[in-house]
Structure formats: structure tokens, C-alpha cells
Specification:
Number of helices: 16
Number of strands: 11
Structural class: alpha/beta
Shape: globular
Strand content: 15-25%
Helix content: 25-40%
Radius of gyration: 20 Å
Length: 364
């Protein structure tokens, strides 16, 4: 998911910028990658949150003969902007991590060569947002939602909020922290969720009321979740005092996974009436040096091995119908039956205006 920095277990690797992930790789492979035709290295350009098991990418190498090299490039917006600047002479072969909030920017700039990935018939129609042209392939979904600190609400004998409307109630004044919609993918997703819920004529009024109710805005997810949210492991260490945060429906399983000792239940919950569905895509970059390797990688990204590997590495949901979720997700994750959505073309037409309007209302 676009730089959720999903309690980043890959932070050290991300700091290195370029990471060779497949176990069969060598320095000869890497140098060969620059030669183009016949290369045995395929380069995946991504945001910092991409992560995959070494065994799974080793399986890709064994199946195809290609070694994967990952070039991490900051958050989703920054990574996409760099590809736009190098359009036609891309830094890699496949781009992963453009989501439905930024998809139009990538497509309008002609970044991708159309390719219909093998196995696409196993992917649900509702996430195939470019189904007629196949410029991008859906890889995962995630839901941006308000998370809450269970202990805080139990101690206060206060029911946690469940909906956007609830967040306006006096009982939740000064409790919510969210990310800046102009600088953060979850922040933008939460803004789009309010547009979907209240319409273009009503979202501004909603945010005026939310500001009056003490919402706090910070630059990005890490600051919001790890420094401001009292329910996270980082927040507890930082003595954070905000028991509501905009994060993901998959955040509670992550809190369980990395807790020592592992708790019987997640310390955080999800207000499922506040969720916005995020869909991430990958595409074959126009001008890719290793087009054959790029196509093979796209096939692999929607294959069962990779799809079942994603949840506990990137904390996102698979898009293929036969992929099984790990028990940690089914036991501790929130099931979001009716997330809000906004059509990509509507986002394309209005995103900048909505963000400017939001900024003038909430930040300035």
C-alpha cells in the first residue's frame, strides 16, 4: 500500500535504496541488467513499503530464470513523480505501488506499455480499473480507516466511534489524529472517503466541523501512528495521547504480530464505517530494457505464491480469488464489507482542487 509504512519491518532495507531480493542473484546479473536484451535481471521500481519473502522471489527466479532487483524510491507519490520525470527512459522495468488515488496521473503521462497479465481472470472485476487497456495490473487492496485504542475507550467506559458522523460528536473531541492529505497517501484516502460519504457539496462542511472538534493533522503516517496514537507500540513508548488515528484495517494484526508476548486480542480496533478502499497496481514501464522479464514479473505478482505472501509482508489483501489469507488476518483483521470509493476519473478531475480546499480549511 502506498507508503503506509505499515509498521515498517523493511525500514533498514528501504534506507539502502536498492535491494536485491531474489536469492539466486549475483553481481554479474546486476551488471547484465543494464544491457537490456537477454538480461537475467528484472528491476522493480517501488515505494518504500514493498516487501516480499526471499523464498517467494527465489521461486520466481527458479521458474523464470530472472532475478528481481528492487529500487525503492520513497513514498508512492515521490516514486511516481520520479518515473514521470524519466518517462521513456525508465529506471526499471516494472513499477509497483501506484494506487487508485494517483492512477490517473500515471496513465495520463503514458508511463506504461499495455500487457494483459496471465491469470488476470482470477482477479475481481471491481479492482480492474483499467480492464479495457491493460496498462496496469491490480496487485493488492487495503482499507484506510480510523483505528482506535481499545484500552483508552475501555478505561473511559466510552464506546469507540464507528462512522464518519461519530467523529463529530463532542465525546471524541481532541482525540483524532490524521495525516496531511497533501503529503500522505492515507491522509488523501481519508479525505476521499469523506468526499464519497458527504459529496462534493458536503465534505468541506464536514471538515470544518471535524476541525472544530479538535482533529490534529501531521505530515505522514509514521508520525501519526507511531508518535501520536496511544494504541500503537510506538505511541505507548512515546506516551502519545490521541486514541484515534487514520491508518489501515490491517494495522491490528500487525500490532499482534510484533508484540512480545503475543496478546490474545489486538490492542487496537477499526471503525469500519470510516474506510476508503485503496487498490495498488503494477505496470510494465514504457521503454523497459527487459520487457520479457517485466511481463514475467507481472504474471508472478498476481500468481498464488506472491499473493499469499503479501499479507504478512506488506499487510495488504490479495486480489486473486483463490489466495488464502493467513490466520493472523482472519482472526485479528477487520472485515470491511462496504468501504467508500471514488471513481478514478472523478479523482483525476478533482483531486488537486479537493486537496487545495482541504488545506485551506484544515491546515492554514
Amino acid at each position: 500500500m502506498s507508503t503506509t509504512t505499515k509498521i515498517t519491518v523493511t525500514a533498514v532495507a528501504a534506507a539502502l535504496g536498492v535491494t536485491a531480493l531474489a536469492g539466486c542473484g549475483s553481481s554479474d546479473d546486476a551488471s547484465e541488467g543494464a544491457k537490456g536484451s537477454g538480461s537475467k535481471t528484472v528491476t522493480l521500481v517501488s515505494h518504500d513499503s514493498f516487501n516480499a519473502s526471499k523464498d517467494v522471489l527465489k521461486a520466481f527466479t527458479e521458474e523464470t530464470g530472472y532475478t528481481v532487483k528492487v529500487l525503492k524510491s520513497g513514498d508512492a507519490g515521490a516514486a511516481l513523480n520520479q518515473e514521470i520525470l524519466t518517462k521513456g527512459s525508465p529506471r526499471g522495468d516494472v513499477f509497483f505501488g501506484v494506487d487508485n488515488t494517483l492512477l490517473s496521473r500515471a496513465l495520463d503521462n503514458g508511463l506504461f506499455t499495455p500487457y494483459e497479465a496471465k491469470g488476470l481472470d482470477r482477479v475481481a472485476d471491481d479492482v480492474r480499473l483499467d480492464a479495457d487497456k491493460h496498462r496496469v495490473t491490480p496487485v493488492d487492496t487495503g482499507d484506510i480507516c480510523v483505528n482506535y485504542d481499545k484500552k483508552y475507550f475501555a478505561d473511559k467506559k466510552l464506546a469507540p466511534p464507528r462512522s464518519f458522523d461519530d467523529l463529530l460528536k463532542p465525546a471524541y473531541k481532541n482525540l483524532l489524529v490524521t495525516e496531511n492529505a497533501a503529503t500522505s497517501s492515507p491522509g488523501l484516502g481519508f479525505l476521499l472517503g469523506t468526499v464519497a460519504a458527504y459529496g462534493e457539496d458536503g465534505y468541506e462542511d464536514y471538515w470544518k466541523k471535524l476541525k472544530d472538534n479538535g482533529v490534529k493533522v501531521v505530515d505522514g503516517w509514521e508520525q501519526a501512528y507511531n508518535d501520536e496514537f496511544s494504541g500503537s507500540a510506538g505511541g505507548r513508548k512515546a506516551k502519545a495521547d490521541r486514541p484515534l488515528v487514520v491508518s489501515y484495517a490491517s494495522s491490528p494484526p500487525v500490532e499482534v504480530l510484533y508484540a512480545e508476548p503475543r496478546p490474545a486480542e489486538a490492542p487496537t480496533g477499526v471503525a469500519t464505517g470510516t474506510c476508503f478502499r485503496q487498490i495498488e497496481f503494477a505496470g510494465l514501464l514504457d521503454g523497459a530494457k527487459n520487457e520479457a522479464g517485466g511481463k514475467a514479473l507481472l504474471d508472478f505478482l498476481i500468481g498464488q505464491k506472491f499473493q499469499e505472501d503479501m499479507p504478512l509482508n506488506m499487510f495488504v489483501n490479495p486480489v486473486v480469488s483463490d489466495a488464502k489469507l493467513p490466520e493472523l488476518f482472519t482472526e485479528f483483521g477487520a472485515k470491511v464489507d462496504e468501504p467508500t470509493t471514488v471513481a478514478p476519473e472523478k479523482i483525476a478531475e478533482n483531486r488537486e482542487q479537493w486537496v487545495r480546499s482541504w488545506s485551506s480549511l484544515v491546515v492554514k
